[in-house]
Amino acid sequence: MKNLNLFLLLVLLSLANNSFSQQQVGLHYDINGQAIHGYLDPLSYAPEKKLSKVHYSDSYEMGHYYDSIGNKVEGFIKFENKKIYFKENMSLGRKKLTPDLVKNFVIGVDSFFVVSNYYWRGKLKTKPQFVQFITEFDGNTYAKLYQFKSSFEFDLFDNNGIQEIFLIKEKDKMIWDEFPRNRDRFKSKALQYFGHIPYLKKKIQVDKYKFENTISLIKYAEYRSKAKNFQPVLYDEFWTETYSTEKAKYHAYISQQNDSIWIFDYFKNEVKLYTAHFSSFYPNVKDGELIAYNIDGTVRQRIFYKNNKLKKVKNYKQNGSLLNCYQCKFLKKDSLNPWVKTITYDSLVNASGNNILKEKTNGSIQITDQYRNLKYNQIYRDNQLVSSYRIENKDTIYQITDPNYKFRIKKLQTNLDYILSDNNCDEAISMNAQGIILALIRINKKGHMVDCKILNKIHPQLDSMIHEFLLGDESIPNMTLNKFKPYKHNKKKQFCEFILPFEFSILRFYRKPTRYYFNHFNHFNHFNTGPKFTPPPTPTFNNRF
């Protein structure tokens, strides 16, 4: 390795023909010291530090509309404030979509249709308006109307200049009712429509559900209906909830539900992927176990959450026996030091089936990355993993296992923001492509990147952009993408390999990023450290149009 010249080997691994959401990547540790035990799991993997690209602005998305006589026209649609434009082809001119000409339209994964005769601020409105479909169950249809700020209405609107109006229409009725913003009026209306559900009635009466929780209230009632009628919840390939069976790639059944905990079983076709426990929805809050399965149905991982915070992880071998078990805690050693994250191992099972940490806190073990057929030597001290390394030729290659490792990411993020452009990923954006790409980076003792592999795919445009980013651009001053902070072990510089995660998100006023729902806390921790902006209203989903 020492004689290798600087180069980049980019390998995009295609999924198998019977692929599903858990993508095999091997045994790795990312820049946060977070272990990845064989698979990239979108429901659980939420790195605190990552390189991020968030598409904020409105742009054209793939979609279609139905005209006033029912003809379907496919193309691209975008919002410009309250105006809606359509292009049949991106190279052609645009035209405006209006309620008198268009019956309904689909933009990305969201559906809009025309309503009239609806209440707003207690007054009946009759002017036709586009509203966003939320859901339909038990004879009721739910929708959201967006009102855009005018010069004399600043006090009525959110900081982003858009007000949400949640509407409901009961079966066989012609008028849409509203959920008022006023506290007492909202409580009265919520009890009117959801008071037949004992748990919701109790929560509404004590103000646990307010206007800002309307979407969560609706989804609770919807999921309750789906559980009762054994109906699936559908998701597209990027794990955005959808009502389109054509776009659905994954689905979930609610196998158990009580007042506070819901159990979802997730599938790809007939293959069971996950079982997850949630205590609330939109965003989804994990409370209890999240179980990941092998393709043969055996358990490969159990993660335990409390109020969406990871507490314990158990990993299993392919034969079903325990591999290891560790707990995640934050400790403060003294008043001068900040909180530090600790990962403490309770169990570490060797090839003989013995827990080497059962009677002592120190030990070493050799483990095999069965997906890459590589052997790693791991050393534990005081029940914590202090080093993990493998030997290649004459070089010792370490992994980043310290959960408090100070990986320098600020300059990388600046470079990423400089290079990546929304114009370079317009097709991916139009398809609502989102998710995490994992790059396996290997550096030498000087911190130079000597090898890199992309371990998974999202969309060809996004994959290509990461390829270009990792290659670097010599024409850009101070662009040092191939140089990282040298890794030190025992104060000596060493060869090192680590996972560098890239996350792509799309943020629109009518839709939050997909990962906001499954990994809400970590997702918005990133937002809080980035540029200042006002989060958009809560999004909804695609209709059956």
Overview of this structure, please?
There is one protein chain. Helix content is 14%, strand content 41%. It is mainly beta and 545 residues long. It has a domain of 167 residues. Strands 7-6-5-4-8-9-12-13-14-15 form a ten-stranded antiparallel beta sheet. Strands 17-16-18-19-20-21-22-23-24-25 form a ten-stranded antiparallel beta sheet. Strand 14 and strand 15 form a beta hairpin.
What is the CA-based Rg, rounded?
25 Å
Order of the strands making up the biggest sheet:
7-6-5-4-8-9-12-13-14-15
Q: What structural class results from the helix and strand content?
A: mainly beta
Which quaternary structure do these chains form?
Answer: single chain
Count up the helices: 8
Q: Bin the strand percentage.
A: 35-45%
Mean pLDDT: 85
Main beta sheet: strand number and arrangement? 10 strands, antiparallel
- Which outline best applies? globular
- Helix fraction by DSSP (H/I, runs of at least 4): 10-25%
User: Span from first to last CA?
Assistant: 57 Å
The stretches of 5 or more residues where confidence is low (pLDDT under 50) are 1-20, 151-156, 520-545
Q: What's the total count of β strands?
A: 33
Organism: Marinifilum flexuosum
Signal peptide: 1-21
Keywords: Signal
Protein name: TonB-like protein
